[in-house]
Amino acid sequence: MRRKHHPPDAPEAEPDLAAPRPDVEAPAETEPEPAAPDETEAKEEPMAGADDSQVSVVSRGTKIEGSVMAAGSLRVEGEVRGQITAQGEVSLSPQGRVEANIKAASITLAGTVKGDLVATGDVALPAESRLDGNIRARNADVGGFVDGDVTVAGRASLGPRARVEGDITSSSLAIAEGAVFIGRSVMGGQTADDAKSAAVGSA
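^ thats the sequence. predicted structure below, dont judge the formating
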């Protein structure tokens, strides 16, 4: 008697994992997270030469009472009463009015100032300017009116419209024709007070 031959059972097909299953919901699509911002773009670039080129302005019509400090330069077109300190240049427009002591690298005044000027560099007072106070600087170029002493390590010069009522201490002094100088001139770095004391001692 012949036995019937049964073919071996075919292996069960593995489920296709990629095919979607009807009983399982597909995960909701999520929006991709935005890329982190580039830190180099977010940072604000400093101005080139900010220490030297940055200029603060006291605009015309503005009045300030108190201390004014500038990391760079300062231009005054309004009014300031108090104290002015700047690491750069302080400039005063013809309309500016200042009642303050000024300390800066250099000073240019074209308006009216009541106060002392101290500069590590040069001081310039164009024609029509007026200063009621003293000057201490490297060099001084006076074209307007000064009621006070001028003490410089280098050169002091008086323009044709200058008028100085005070002592001038300098290494060299130039007085243009038409200038008015009422005071004493001390050359060679000796102050006017030293000269006065020496004159009294020798009398």
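Confidence is low (pLDDT under 50) at residues 36-52, 190-203.
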